[in-house]
Structures are given as structure tokens and as C-alpha cells.
Amino acid sequence: MKGDIPSKKKIPFPVKHSFSQYLSEYGRSVKLPIQYEDLTRMTTSVALLDAEGNDTLWETAYYDPADTRELNAALTQIYALLKTDGDFQVLEHLKVARIDYCTFGNTKPFRIRIINGLNDNYDHFYVKRGDASRLYGLELEDLLSPNRITFLIDGETLIEEHVAGIPGDDFMEKNLAETDFNKIRIAKEFIKFNERCFVRLLGDMRAYNYVVDITPDIEGSQFRIRAIDFDQQSYEGRKSFYLPQYFKENNPIVFLGVGQMSAKTVIQYQLEERSLIAARVNRSRKRLDHLMRIMVKDRISDDRKVTQLKNELAYHHKTDTFLTCSTMGEIVLNNIQLLLAKDFKQSILIE
């Protein structure tokens, strides 16, 4: 399997008025007590190590006392907005246990650990810089995947809930030595995840950009792969960038599928997931139509990447319908429309 990397660091795109109105209409836009930039006023930071002493690429941030008090009050309010729709009665039991800063990647997120004083249970959420393509990615995840995801936006500040699960790279290192029954389920879920990414054109799903949620079942376990990074929603020009199977970091799970499934079985699971995506489209038709009307007019990539991707998808799907597209939004819409036409077999990919 060959790997694929972004052509260069992704540039952010502003949220236009029409998209901002959409986000407000559907309860995504709120007034936040602090902005992303307020968290950058740290006085120092210390590398955060895991239980085995390895660098996590996160740093724990420290602030002067006045800023700490202000941030703690604001961040617990944001958690209440995210989790309880602004019911601030929960605030007296919440406190900020830690603020971590990620030095890796484009988004430079802050991860906030919240502790419930009643039972010492903790939860997390993230503060990031928001841009249009990332917000489209979050909305499409909520509408087209089997997973709901909660986020809030205020200007350029994005708040995202924490998605629980084992990071993909850790999962492949520690959890692939399962029973044959579970190996089949793992391989099946990766095939379905691959399809979900390709249909809605979510890119860069290498192992550290998704998590695996494991649910014990009557016999064996159920596995769900969930994206946690939406930075590369329909931004790059290479078709392979939207297929997780091509990233070398995913080779262990890809090879697991090769050893467990025939080509006929792979196609069966691809068709099954596409049918499920079509059902999700139909259930959220009004909202998705609204989103796509905005997205097709928006600019969330450069013209060179748009041209490359529409040509590669036209060749892959064996249709000229992509060649008239002038934006990434139009390409995504065409990809979804092909799905709804139920003409799946022409675009099934086994390479």
C-alpha cells in the first residue's frame, strides 16, 4: 500500500455569511465567554507524557493566577453550553483540571479536562480555530455518518466535544490480536469507514486521525471507527487521499482485511454501507439540501486541487458529470448524487 500526504500545509477559509446563518439556524452558533486566542496567553508549558513515559505531542499549559481564574470560569461555562444546553446549575460541581496544548498538526487545539467534583469523573472538550472546510466536515459527519457530533462556533473559535475511543495507531498496535470472529468485524468496519470517507470526501484518515470505539457484545465485540479530525474535508486534489486504505499507517488493519475477506465479501460490505448512507441522506434531506446549496458556492480549496479531483473522480466513476464542477462543494454533491442513483457497482474500488 502506498502512502499519501497533503501537498502543503492546509490554509484556513473564512466562514461566509450564508454558512454562518446556517450554523446559527441549527443551533451551532453561540456567544462564547472566551476565544481561542485567550488560551494562547500561557506563561509556560510542560511536555505531557503518557503512562509509559512517552511524549504525547501535547503540552500542559500554565497561566498566571488572574488568567487561570478567568479561564476556569469561562471554560466550565463552555462545557455547560456543550453538554447541557447552557444549564449552568451544573457549574458548582465542575472545575478545570488541566489545559493541554497540541503542538502537532494544523489546528493547534487546546484540550480541556473537566472534573466533576461530585464523583471525580472527568471529560474533555477541545478549543480550536474554526474554518469553513472543517465546519463542513463536522456537519457532514453529523448528517451522513452513524455518529452524532456536537460542536459550537463563535467567530473563529470552534468548540468540539471529545470523541471517546482508542486512537487508531494504538488500536492497531495492541488490539489486532483478536479472535478470528472479531478480526472479521474489525475488517468489516474499516471497509465501511473507507466508504463513508470516500462518499463525503473526508481526507487524511491515517491512524492518528480516527479512534476505534469497542462495545462488548453477546459474542465478541462490536467495533466503530470514528473520525476525530475534520481539517481535510474536500481540500486535497488526489482521489487516493480520501481513501483510508491507501495510508501506510493503516496497513496493519488493511492487511487484516485481506487475510479475512474475499473480494466478493468486500463488495458486499461496501454496498451495505452505501445503502446506509443513502438512508441517512433521505432522513436529513432538508437540512442536507440547505447545507449543500451553501457549500457548492463556497471556496474551500484552490482551483488546481478542484481540477485534479474532478478529473480523477470522473475517470474513477466513468462519468463526465464531475467535469463541470467548479468548487469542492459541487464535487461532494455529485459524489452523493451518484450514491443516491444506486449505481454503485461502477465505483466500487478494490485495488
Can you walk me through this structure?
The chain is of the alpha+beta class. It folds into 2 domains: 17-161, no CATH class; 166-347. It contains 11 helices and 10 strands. The strands form 2 sheets. Strands 1-2-3-4-5-7-6 form a 7-stranded antiparallel sheet. The protein has a 3-stranded antiparallel sheet with strand order 8-9-10. A hairpin with a 4-residue loop joins β9 and β10.
Rg measurement, Å: 21 Å
Distance between the termini: 9 Å
Please state the overall shape, judged from the principal axes of the Cα atoms: globular
Strand tally is 10
**Average pLDDT taken over every residue:** 90
Helix content: 40-55%
SSE run: HHEEHEEEHEEEHHEEHHHHH
Q: How many domains, as an integer?
A: 2
The fraction of residues assigned to DSSP E strands is 15-25%
**Spatial sequence of strands, sheet with the most strands:** 1-2-3-4-5-7-6
How would you concisely characterize the structure shown here?
This protein is α+β, with helices and mostly antiparallel strands. It has helices spanning 17-25, 36-39, 65-84, 132-144, 168-174, 180-200, 251-260, 263-283, 285-295, 303-317, 328-340; strands at residues 44-49, 55-62, 94-102, 110-116, 122-129, 151-154, 157-161, 166-167, 210-216, 221-227.
